[in-house]
Amino acid sequence: MSNLNLVQAQAAVAAAIKEAERRNLKMNIAVVDAGGNLKAFSRMDGAWLGSIDISIRKARTARLFDMNTGELGKLSQPGGSLYQIEHSNGGLITFPGGVPVRNAAGEVIGAIGVSGSTVENDHAVADAGKAAIDGK
Fold first, then answer.
1. How many domains in the chain?
2. 58 falls within a domain
3. Which end of the chain is more exposed for a tag (fewer CB within 10 A), N or C?
């Protein structure tokens, strides 16, 4: 199994912080490795304390299911094929802000989760972090 390294994880956090600052946001940013273990984390000054856990769970959820957390959320709505999946694995997050990170071969090597604003902003900041290492 391929895994992201610390330099990649820190690059993802730095890129996410840069995008959050550009948007004038205060975010919590978590990066997990291929095993879903926390590899890097940053809480921007003033970011919500409650979003620490959410950002980590978003990253972990994206890695456990190798999909954006928002996509998993669509499948977990009442009547959906994955209804109530958020209660599994010690608690998942099924709204946007978590995205898997892939290497150049397309293998998932980790994930990034962001929380602290609207889900649209969370997702955009996570995408910026992912772009710093995705496919490289």
1. 1
2. yes
3. N
| pTM assigned to the model | 0.93
Domain of residue 112 covers: 6-131
Q: What is the CATH number of the domain that holds 40?
A: 3.30.450.150
Q: Is residue 136 part of a domain?
A: no
Helix axes 6-22, 119-131, angle to 10 degrees: 140
* Any domain includes 73: yes
CB 92 within 8 A of CB 66: no
Give the type of residue at 83.
Answer: Y
17-50 core/surface letters (b: 16 or more CB in 10 A; e: else): bebbeeeebebbbbbbbbebeebbbbbeeebeee
